[in-house]
Amino acid sequence: MKDTPSAYKVNLEAPPDSLMAMEKRLQGNLTFVQDKLDSLNQNLMEFTSERIKHVSKNSHTKQLDDQIESLQEALRFQYKMRNVLNEMLGTTRQLPFQSNDKIQSRLKEMRRHLNRIDHGQLPDYYDQIQISSEPYQATATDMASRWYGIPCKKYMSQDGKIYATSKEPWFSHTDSNLYKYFKNQEFLEVSARILYTQKSFFLEVEFVVNSLKAADVLGYLDPNSPVRMDFMNGHHIYLQTFAQSDLRINRTEGQSLYEVQYQLDSEDLRELSKYELDTITIVWTRGAERYEIAHLDLIKQLLECVQTKN
User: Fold this and answer.
1) Distances (CA, A) of 42 to 31, 39, 46, 48, 217
2) What's residue 255's pLDDT?
3) Which domain holds residue 108?
4) Residue that is last in its domain, among 72, 104, 131
5) Are residues 188 and 98 both part of a single domain?
6) Which tens digits make up the pLDDT trace of 24-55?
7) Are 209 and 188 in contact (CB under 8 A)?
8) How many other C-beta atoms can be found within 10 angstroms of the C-beta atom of residue 8?
9) What CA–CA distance (Å, rounded) separates 74 from 65?
């Protein structure tokens, strides 16, 4: 990634009406999909509650099982649809930094995808092969690089309403053009913890940049663009910013600190609790960056920790 501001000038010739119309259309589709997800989850909860009342199997329970399976399949489809729409939204918000020809080409491509979505079909989209891929089988090499465990440290707020794990190192990164300046430490160090409150889970991530010029190199975290997490088995999810702090400068340590919270829904929790992460893509105002995760199952361990009873 280049660190010169001139490399990221906005294309002032880009047609703003087209970009705004595309974003508005994507937001409308996302609202529709979220309403669909809420309705499906509510129906699934009702059918599941009814099903657990019956121990023996009969024609009624078989009908309930079929309805539950149908709802689960519909939910999987809508979650895939939401992932695609979120990725398209993130792409749209980066288009002002592209050439006008590329903007027009991408808008044409996304209109074609949205036409399929409007007909209730997943677009012919390059990432769909990842969404539907088979579970990943770890090799001996993969096993050697795993994070073998962290102490489960859990804290409770004074009013007893919030539980939090300890903040643990997650991954670090130094761009190749910065190696000569960071021989004894990483440019970016990232840690994470899990918060649990009122049946809601949050992933809190702290980005520590060992430089006072982080804003010049990375810019700021874009709260409107989702974070993408890719798993070792090929699945991926998107997390939307729930809250984030302003950039903090620690002049004594020569550090710039960013902190952000992402709320985790049931699908996020299912994926994060089951699979190991591979990479994470963060959208900074200077551009998107993809980072390799060092502690592959840290989030899975933190989720287990925050839910322990002792």
Assistant:
1) 17, 5, 6, 10, 45
2) 93
3) 5-131
4) 131
5) no
6) 888 888 889 888 888 888 888 787 777 766 66
7) yes
8) 15
9) 14
